[in-house]
Amino acid sequence: MLPADHHDGPWDAVFVPPGTKERLLGTALLVLRHGRALGTLSGPPHGLIVLSGPPGTGKTTLCQGLAQAAATAVARRGATTFVEIDPHAFPSEMLGESQRAVRRLFAETLPELAARRPHTVVLVDEVEALAVRRSTASFQTNPVDVHRATDAVLAGLDTLRAECPHLVLLATTNFPAAVDEAVLSRADLVLALELPGPDVLARIVRSSLAELATLWPALRPLAADTALHGKLAARCAGFDGRRARKAILAAVAQRPDLAEDPSRLSDVDLYAAVSA
């Protein structure tokens, strides 16, 4: 149930280009607040938001944060149910099993969960595992079941639109070309997250050092050195956000004396870690 104190953090932890979070939150709130009224339009929203991009760009974390941010925004109208689905848990060994499992998910499980509270947000990571692009499905991977499972997803999205107008479905994918075209066409927003540029990397470096400085106050000068952040970001060119954060942590772990006492971390140590 959201909003919840233990779910704070992800929304602020991911750094994205200006306007990205506003578009995500606006798209989600439109459905959560006005989904039933919008259902009267000739082209109503499906409540589907798809985030694509390379691993480490913060897609899942951003979705988790969006769920909390949206739930907070509509909290006066009631709580929000947040559901995370692992698509790899669906059976596929037997012909037709994936199709039946997907149909149950969309026609029974999600509507039952959505009936509990005024708003519902569902997260499906790696949605390509559920909605394989049928035009490129290999005949060596049980294509009949693949097609049927994707058909079930499409029918399920339409069912949720009709039966659960205040439900938002967040989907992530590392491979947008592997997601069925008909699923993407139902999305209200398809947002591609790219590898962070220099400005975003500098913010990630600053944030990572600031977090370390809360544990070891002697590191506050490093956390406040914007020139240092820019230089480190330049050396992190091509890193995803996760790798950039881990590089800062790796700086503390590169020598036993630093691991024993992280307050001894220096700019030299940081340069060495991001250049390794």
UniProtKB/TrEMBL annotation:
<dbReference type="InterPro" id="IPR003960">
    <property type="entry name" value="ATPase_AAA_CS"/>
</dbReference>
<dbReference type="InterPro" id="IPR027417">
    <property type="entry name" value="P-loop_NTPase"/>
</dbReference>
<dbReference type="InterPro" id="IPR044539">
    <property type="entry name" value="Pch2-like"/>
</dbReference>
<dbReference type="GO" id="GO:0016887">
    <property type="term" value="F:ATP hydrolysis activity"/>
</dbReference>
<dbReference type="GO" id="GO:0005524">
    <property type="term" value="F:ATP binding"/>
</dbReference>
<dbReference type="Pfam" id="PF00004">
    <property type="entry name" value="AAA"/>
</dbReference>
<protein>
    <recommendedName>
        <fullName>AAA+ ATPase domain-containing protein</fullName>
    </recommendedName>
</protein>
<dbReference type="GO" id="GO:0005694">
    <property type="term" value="C:chromosome"/>
</dbReference>
<dbReference type="InterPro" id="IPR003959">
    <property type="entry name" value="ATPase_AAA_core"/>
</dbReference>
<comment type="similarity">
    <text>Belongs to the AAA ATPase family.</text>
</comment>
<keyword id="KW-0547">Nucleotide-binding</keyword>
<dbReference type="InterPro" id="IPR003593">
    <property type="entry name" value="AAA+_ATPase"/>
</dbReference>
<keyword id="KW-0067">ATP-binding</keyword>
<feature type="domain" description="AAA+ ATPase">
    <location>
        <begin position="45"/>
        <end position="197"/>
    </location>
</feature>
